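Human:
I keep going back and forth on a fold encoding question. Comparing notes only helps if you start from a blank page. Show me how you would write down a chain together with its backbone fold. Write it directly below this note and I will take it from there.

Assistant:
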Amino acid sequence: MLKKPFMALSAVALLSGLAACSNDSGENESADSGGTQTLSFWAPFSGPDGPQMEEIVNSFNDSQEDVQVDMQIVPQSEYYTTVDLSLSGQQESPDVLIMHGDQIPTYAAQNILKNVDTIVGDTISQDDYHPTAWDGVEVDGNLYGVPLDIHPLMFYYNKDMFEAAGLDPEAPPTNREEFVDMAKQLTNEEAGEWGYAVPTLWPQQFIFPTIVYQNGGELVTDEGSTANFASPEAVEALEFLSSLIYEEGVSPENVQQDGELTLFLQGKSAMHMNGPWMLSQFEDSDLNFGVAPVPQLGTETEAVFANSHNFVIPETVQDEGKLEAISTFLNYVADNGQAWAESGQAPVSKAVYESDEFNEMKQQPQVAKQFDYAQFSPNVENWGPLSDPLYSAINEVLLGSMEAQEALEQAQQDAQSRLE
């Protein structure tokens, strides 16, 4: 486990007050006079995905009388600040909440998430989920959550631009050679049309590690103690992205935040990589778009960077009745999660992603095709702040201000200093 160079949890110093401020005093305070267990559930789904989760919760509440779930949506921009305050005892914490996979190692290290090994295998079966999903909830051999979905990088393309360039609109690229060749055919600089607009900022947090992993590389080694940003695999990945701008000429220079998205929506960029959360925006546009797994742009293996949504339980939840109620709710979500798929996401419950209804959808089966080789961020604490120097370096290189080797070596040194 990575040493803690700084705290990601804003109020973790107040952890000693957790027991006193717990939402579970040991008595079943959540049960009303009729014996119904009421669970508080927090989620950051403040976008188009919120109503889909609310639909699942409402269906669960209507399906039985023993457990009622009170769902609270906290805006994504405020979510982890609010979670920090609750889990540090400054305000009442929920009984169950959604947490991204890349956040779990940090919170688990503070001993404020419940190890759910005690309920998995008893009332919740790990066999009911895709095995990759459990990588997002496991820390040092312990399970700290029950997975909801995996959301990897996805490949989108403009079918009309493909057809105009003489390309098959039903045959997107599957490897680097095809990608570069098609990008050249799709580029018409005089008309302001590009094969692929390389973002210099977000979502490089998904694009760059995808290519590093496809090159067979790692961003952190030695069980989380060594930053590996300047590895040959990482340098090659960044040089490839840079070459699309400055050598191949298939991307405009100096693409600022969301510039690549704007070009794609305007029909000025033929290929685009982003997350499955973009589906509703693309469907609401006038684009004739296709969606596919990300091409193998690296040199060694299939891989794609992903994050995940997971249900986690605060350590303060001790009441057995409440834990049983949480298990009942999570089992229902696993069996009845098609509504979550309708948000564009791909649930990792086999009952959903193996169903005919799921596999008749446009995007979601393409997401699930990548489950087998999806890879997550390094299983270390504070990955977000630790990776900041890396993405600053990538930005400099893609703006043409630095060479890849130099920039990544500097980022590696900066990150390593935070580890020591």
